[in-house]
Structure formats: C-alpha cells, structure tokens
Amino acid sequence: MNCEIFREIMGSYVDETLEEGRRQWFRIHLRECSNCRQTALREEPSLLFAMAPAAPGEPEAIEACTTAVMGRIRQDRLERRLHRRRRPWLAAAAAATLVISGGISWRALVGGGSETLQPVVEARRDAEPQNSPPTVEVEMAGEEVRVYQFASEEDSDTAVYFIVDPALEL
Amino acid sequence: MVKENLCIQFAGFGSCDEVVMNDRQWIQAAKKGDEDAFAKLVRRHSGGLHRTVARILADDAEAWDVVQMAFLKAWQKLDRYNPRFSFTTWLYRIGTNLAIDLLRSRTSRERAHKAGSEHRLRLVGAGEGTGTRADSNETDNVLQQLVGVLTPQQRSAFVLREMEGLETAEVAEVLGCSATTVRNHIFQARKALRRELRQRFPEYLPASERG
Q1: Residue B177 and residue A16: Cα distance in Å, rounded?
Q2: Would you say residue B174 has pLDDT above 90?
C-alpha cells in the first residue's frame, strides 16, 4: 500500500508540488524501501541525492572550529582595545594625568605631608631648592610597545613606568 | 523558520523546542558580550552548517574556513539579529552567502580541475543502501563530481532543499529570494544532474537502465 502511494506521488515530489508533510514521508520511504528506490532512480536519477543523511560533524573538527572562532573573537577584542589606546589624544591625556599626579605625589613626598595640598605650580617652586621636579617621558617603540616613563630630572632614576605590550596580553 | 528540518541535525541536544529555547537564551547572553554563550552556539551549529557548505562548495576543508567566517560575521553583527527569526536561518544565510561568494570568485580553471579528478564509485545495487552513512558519503562524493554543472544559486537551492530537506519557504529565506525562484533553481538543477548522472555515473542507475 505504501509503495503504491509512493509511486503515485513521485511525480509531485519531483515537480515540487507535494505538500511538505507528504514530502517528508516520501523521503523516508525512499531510504527504507529498496524496491521503490530502484523504481525511483530509474525514473528520476537525481533522487539519489534525497538519500543524503543529516550526519553530524566530527566532534574533534567541531571543537577545533569552536576554538578557532573564539580565539579570533578574543584577538579582535584585544586589537580593538589596543587600537583605542593608540589614539593620540588618549596618549596626551595619559601624559597629562601623569604630570599632574606626579606633581601632587612629589609635593606630598618633598613637602613633608602637609594637611592640605597646594597647587602644583607652588609645589614645584617650593621643591626647587631641594630637588628637581619630576619629568614625564613617553616613548614609542614601533607600533607594538609603548612606555610611559616617570623620572627625576636630576639623577634620571626611573620612578614609575608602564609597558603596554600586546604580545604579553595575548 | 528552519526549526523543523534543521532540528534533525541536533541529535543529542534535546528536543527541537529545547534547542530553540537554548539558542534564544545563548543569543541574549552573547549579545551582552558573553563569549561562552556564543561558544555554545558555535558547538551546536558548526557541524550542520559545515555539512551544508561543504556540499555547496564540494570542498570539505574550505567549508570549515567558511563556517569560521560565518560565525565571526554572526558575532560581529549579533546586534542586528532579529529574534523573530530562527538563529539557524540567519546563520545559514550568512554561511550560504559566503559560500556563493567564494564559488563566484573561483576561476573556471579551478572548477575544471576539480571536475577532472573523477573517480569511480561502487555500485548501490538492489537490496542495499538504506541510507547508511557509507552510502551517504558516496552520495556526497557523486555530488562533488557533478556540482560543477550547476550555478552557485542552483547548487545552494538543491543542497538545502533536496539534501538537507528544508521547506521551499525556508530555502527562500536563506537564499533571500522567492519560493518561485527556489522551485526554478531546483527544476534546473535536477534536469542538469539527471543528464550528468546518466552520462557519468550509470552504475548508480538500476541494472535495467545501465545499457
């Protein structure tokens, strides 16, 4: 009975006019019934491809794909962060912040811990007889490394420095 | 939209509804930057997408590259994803478009080289071949030899409709065309494949047809 129905609706399947539910049934019967498959392939050889299954992928390959995709996503995120850091205005802002905070820290150290902080300009003037004020140097080594160096002018000893190296972050 | 048929691929992941629900939860989390949630989506869908793309491209290794590109693109455009539609439809649309672009960029010389590397395959005779994996891999092998005669759009429509078993409306959604256009692609593809199969793979026809 099923085989009769199969043969009746085969033309509709090939013509793309078969209702979707019956279409699914047709595909299952094509796989399961060897006699009907013979008949079907004789009349329409391209039905061979309807027997291709929904086999899942290899777990190792899927895991490798997932690792590659997620690695690339993380790399893109880090690159975007580094790109933002390389903006000139940000470097200038960072340098300015260092100057101000360096001056305040210097005043706190040299000035003997007064209760209220005085303006930076005053701090420099007060500190002059004893020590030179701090200086800030921003060094660029190619595109990859950026060094912020916070040093004393008198003896060139480095007090604070920051290194941003994408290779280390990755 | 592709829910019904693509759920065939999710054996081991629970029912179809569960799959869709998990997808939605993971997409919401991924939209907020949760990379682990997105990794789960990659694990779930990469196998099925790879099989489809590999059939369209007739190249297994290249298909993995396309799958990776598709997921990266999906991650980058996740904020544009409309949850009214199935994630699989959206993902397959991205992957299929990338595969079609790749096919168009290939030179005719490359295609001729692939088509020329023909090999003979064993017979699928009476009483055997009930859709086992071995037979199916051979079906894929035959397709690899023949897809060169189809246009990228015909290949994609035929693979999605005839091999993956999607509904016409779903194929239309993935390919971004009308249902009528999909039917036309299938008709043309079937006609070309019928001719090529009879000429180049008569062993796949029943004994009475082999001459």
Answers
A1: 16
A2: yes
Q: Are residues A55 and B51 in contact, defined by beta-carbon separation less than 8 angstroms?
A: yes
Domain ranges of chain B: 3-107+121-209
Least confident piece of the model among A99-108, B12-21, B80-89, B188-197: B12-21
Partner B contacted by A68 (CB < 8 A): yes
Asked if the interface predicted TM-score (ipTM) of this complex is over 0.85, the answer is: no
Alpha-carbon gap, residue A123 to A105, rounded angstroms: 10
Are B47 and A34 an interchain contact pair (Cβ–Cβ within 8 Å)?
no
List CB contacts of B76: < 8 A, sequence separation 6 or more.
none
Q: Pick the residue from chain A with its C-alpha nearest to B143.
A: A49
- What is the token pair recorded at B82? 């409309």
The alpha-carbon gap from A150 to the nearest alpha carbon of chain B, in Å, equals: 36
Å between B111 CA and nearest CA of chain A: 21
- Please tell me which residue, B161 or B138, carries the higher pLDDT value: B161
Question: Which residues contact residue B65 at a Cβ distance below 8 angstroms, ignoring those fewer than 6 apart?
Answer: none
Residue B49 carries which side chain, given as an amino acid letter? L
Q: In the CATH hierarchy, which fold is given to the domain comprising B3-107+121-209?
A: Butyryl-CoA Dehydrogenase, subunit A; domain 3 (1.20.140)
A96: pLDDT strictly greater than 60: yes
Q: What is the pLDDT of residues B195-207, one digit of tens each?
A: 998 888 877 665 5
Q: What is the mean pLDDT of residues B14-20?
A: 59
Judged by average pLDDT, the poorest of A32-46, A119-133, B97-111 is A119-133
Other C-beta atoms lying within 10 Å of the C-beta of residue B150:
22
Average model confidence (pLDDT) across chain B: 80
User: Which one-letter amino acid corresponds to residue B114?
Assistant: K
- Which residues numbered 166-205 in B keep a CB inside 8 Å of some CB on A? 167-168, 183, 186-187, 189-190, 193-194, 197-198, 204-205
The answer to whether A46 contacts chain B (CB < 8 Å) is yes
Domain boundaries, chain A: 2-51, 57-85, 87-169
Contact criterion met (CB < 8 Å) for A61 and B67: no
Nearest to A150 by CA among A105, A84, A107, A118: A105
